[in-house]
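### Sample
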Amino acid sequence: MTITTTTLSRAAGAAAVVGGLLYIGVQINHPHLDLDLVSTTEWKVRQSMKVGFATLSLAGITGMYLRQVRRTGVLGLIGYVVLALGFIFMVSVEVTGAVVMPAIAHSSPGFVSDVLAVAVPGGHAAGDIGLMGALINLDGVLYLAGGLLFGIALFRAHVLARWAAALLALGAVATLAIPALPQVNFRLFAIPTGVALVGLGCSLWRDQRTPAALPPAEARSPLLDTDSRRATSAAAEVRSS
């Protein structure tokens, strides 16, 4: 199997599509976060889906950035780094939720309940959860800022689907409205980001990077063919003289 830039770009596009679909799927009928949920199989499945979303999305945005690195400029670099860090921190948070939380749910129910409270936008912990709260909040800031900056950079680059790039930026900004709209299910705000990743991934998959090459013989203009024959004839005369 030959690994080419086209193969890697398509793999990144597929990763973004699957990641976006996982993110949308996690939101469907998501139960209320409480202590009882942490000990269930559904919790482990949903946490695993979140880990898959963050991991695949990281691979996807890496392919998007490399595809148009010259067009996105400094804004694209900053947006990519910030969003990538957001996904990296998200993986650490979700892995902790999948592996650690069920193990200590019975011995430290107060700690687990406080972590779940902080995980909800606008939520606050009643007790001390150490650096876990700071990690969750930092992840939220990086995810929001990175989505906004990277979405703007992709939109300005005009390489991948612009509607999806705009939706990525708008989806990140829309999360700021969650605390002000407690009556709205906050998980609905994640759907635009998932759709944006699917759209960008599909756009990256379809995109073809072909190296610059001379046109085929039948597509060349008569003028180019005439000039080529004259140059060949002149070179032959020089060699024979």
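The longest helix spans residues 69-104. This sample (DUF4386 family protein) is used throughout the tutorial notebook.
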